[in-house]
Design a protein that fits this description.
42% helix; alpha/beta; binds pyridoxal-5'-phosphate; globular; 406 residues; 4-stranded antiparallel sheet
């Protein structure tokens, strides 16, 4: 470990405790002390129901909540803070789009194009919308290396297409999709693009305006923030036109027995008491990430990934899912160990003090398309070290022997 490793790891109580070699960062990341402190400080000193009271404490709570919104907007290059809607997680953001935009703009006979690499969170909401409206889900298959061919997309797009759902970075393959090129093709066909940024925002600089995405979702807990806070970004004009998703307190302008008018965005989409502590935690996580900067985080994660990838590629009994170039794996490597079930692989890692993930990673259609049932996934955050990767590789090399395979 070098001094940079130590400095970073000292920020994370759970990582610093050396309880486990934590390599399941695509599922969720650990939390730095500054984020824990910010949440604690909010509840200890500033807590009231935001947006509800005109007394000082409530105004302070509102300020804390709205300041987190401004930080999230600036992080992803949104034009206005109101383009950021706080939700529980990426899943809720994507369901909000499906229930609000989907059910009001998609009808029988229309088509929704969904990439085969989607996490179930950007897959099942569209299957549901299709079931409720009579629209059809059309699948955009990836190539064997996990890349998406725009030529194939152009063949699928037609005047029937209303929406294209695609992930920015796959949580299995780890590949960065060329969202700007996809958005251009989608817009040319008169449809909108819904992009899932759950695995991109934690690891790379994202600019939603440069990508020209209409709607974009991500979760705080995968980027050092608490669980229970997520983001939906939408272009303001589109959000203005979309109806509310959940109805109740704080999302109205006026209510009488005869007539209801709704609040402006973002409040129209944030009914009920909000997760102010979570938002404050997200704001602190964004400050924390900005403090180190994406350049440093990306470089560290790239080196860790390349080191693991090169060694794994040299093991004849390992098959890596997706591209055979480490550069196409943004901190994520899913793999098969010949002759050993992923659950056994993960159990052996766990017995050796290494946390990795096994299963279909909520991406069953992708696994089926690639002809596999499940895989093991190792995923990095910038607090991981080369020593941890070496330990991971050492355990990996011994797995077949432990299972009695020569
Ligand atoms: C690509 C992708 N999309 C969506 C999600 C869902 O995130 P959440 O469970 O935070 O809603 C995940 C979580 O693993 C993911 O990796």
């Amino acid at each position: 470990m070098n001094s940079e490793d130590t400095k970073i790891r000292d920020e994370f109580p759970l990582i610093k405790s050396d309880r486990v070699i934590y390599l399941d960062n695509a599922a969720t990341t650990q939390k730095p002390q500054c984020v824990l402190d910010a949440v604690n400080d909010y509840y200890a000193k500033h807590n009231a129901n935001p947006m509800r009271g005109l007394y000082d404490l409530s105004l302070e709570a509102t300020d804390a909540y709205e300041s987190a919104r401004a930080k999230a907007a600036s992080l992803i290059g949104a034009e206005y803070p109101e383009e950021i809607i706080f939700t529980r997680n990426a899943t809720e953001s994507l369901n909000l789009i499906a229930y609000s935009y989907g059910l009001h703009n998609i009808k029988a006979g229309d088509e929704i194009i969904v990439s085969v690499a989607e996490h179930h969170s950007n897959f099942l909401p569209w299957v549901n919308v299709a079931g409720l409206t009579g629209a059809k889900v059309v699948y955009w298959d990836c190539e064997p290396d996990g890349s998406f061919d725009i030529g194939r997309l152009n063949d699928l797009l037609s005047e029937k297409t209303k929406l294209v759902a695609i992930t920015h970075v796959s949580n299995v393959i780890g590949r960065i999709n060329d969202i700007r090129a996809i958005a251009d093709a989608v817009h040319k066909a008169g449809a909108i693009i819904v992009c899932d940024g759950s695995q991109s925002v934690p690891h790379m600089k994202v600019d939603v305006r440069a990508l020209d995405v209409d709607l974009f979702a991500f979760s705080g807990h995968k980027m050092y923030a608490p669980m229970g806070i997520g983001v939906l970004y939408g272009q303001k004009k589109l959000l203005d036109e979309m109806p509310p998703f959940i109805y109740g307190g704080e999302m109205i302008e006026s209510v009488t027995k005869e007539r209801v008018t709704y609040a402006e965005v973002p409040h129209k989409f944030e009914a009920g008491t909000v997760n102010a502590g979570g938002a404050v935690g997200l704001g602190a996580a964004i400050d924390f990430m900005n403090g180190y900067g994406y350049d440093l985080m990306e470089e560290r994660e790239r080196k860790l990934t390349a080191h693991a990838f090169d060694a794994m590629s040299a093991m004849p009994y390992i098959t890596i899912i997706g591209s055979d170039d480490a550069k196409d794996h943004l901190g994520i490597i899913a793999f098969k160990v010949e002759g050993v079930h992923p659950h056994d692989v993960t159990a052996i890692f766990s017995d050796s003090g290494v946390a990795v993930r096994a299963g279909h990673h909520c991406a069953q259609p992708l696994h089926k398309h690639l002809g596999i049932m499940s895989s093991t996934r190792v995923s990095f955050a910038f607090y991981n070290t080369m020593e941890e990767v070496d330990r991971f590789l050492e355990v990996l090399e011994g797995i077949r022997g432990k299972m009695g395979i020569q």
